[in-house]
Amino acid sequence: MPHIHDDHCGHESHEHDHDHDHDSSSTGAQDNLYTHIDRDNVVALNANDDCKGSDAIKPWHERTSEDKVSINPLLILPPSHFFFQIIRIPFTGSVKLRSLLLKTGPTDLTPSKVALFANEDNLDFQDVADKKPTQELDIAQGRDVGEYAVKTAKFPNVSSLTLFFPSSQGAETVRIYYIGLLGTWTERKSNPVITVYEAQANLADHQKIQGTDGNLSTPQS
Fold first, then answer.
1. Structural domains in the chain?
2. Using CA atoms in the order 106, 99, 58, 161, what is the torsion angle rounded to 10 degrees?
3. Could you report the per-residue pLDDT of 40-50, keeping only the tens digit for each?
4. Could you tell me whether strands 18-20 and 158-164 are parallel, antiparallel, or unpaired per DSSP bridges?
5. What is the distance between the alpha carbons of residues 38 and 175, in angstroms, rounded to a whole number?
6. How wide is the angle at C-alpha 103 spanned by C-alphas 97 and 109, nearest 5°?
7. Closest residue by Cα to residue 46 from 24, 74, 21
8. Closest CA to 85 of 164, 12, 19
9. CA atoms within 13 Å, Cβ hemisphere of 166
10. Three-state SS for 61?
11. Fewest Cβ atoms closer than 10 Å to its Cβ: which of 2, 53, 157, 158?
12. Which InterPro entries does this chain map to (predicted)?
């Protein structure tokens, strides 16, 4: 399994349910989650020093851009096993995910599949090897933007999404030009912490013990 080569920073059922190059305003604007991604905190593992994990996450109008090339370093652990890229995408709120958009390739430079992990922070290559993904999708060859529908019931309340590209379709590098996400965003609400306490005891608030006339005494030593 080779490493990632990304021209805008390289980066179950094996569903093959996808469409290509949607230009409608609903896909490009209404439910595109680009503005709700915390791009400053996107993390990419196995990425070149010149390549940030967020470079492939672009606005819709730049989805076809191939103006930048970056090659990720090759990791071999153990021998003959190649580790591709992990990209963790945090959101600024809660997301109900509908589709993943990818522009990859061409031909054998296309990833063979992508594993999606919802709300799994800080995954490394050992973690993704041992953990079952929330969903796994096969990736079709082609230079258009492909839309890959996810099972929305598995992604109802997503605060972060981790993508793992485990292999190519034959080459020693993988090209990923564009990553996009479609769905519904809502503001994340945290419940207020309410603390009830008594700052100072008030004898007037407590019943007197019968026969003491309210006088308290302390034991003598």
1. 5-200 (2.60.120.470)
2. -110
3. 998 887 655 55
4. unpaired
5. 23
6. 125
7. 74
8. 164
9. 16
10. helix
11. 157
12. Galactose-bd-like_sf, PITH1-like, PITH_dom, PITH_dom_sf
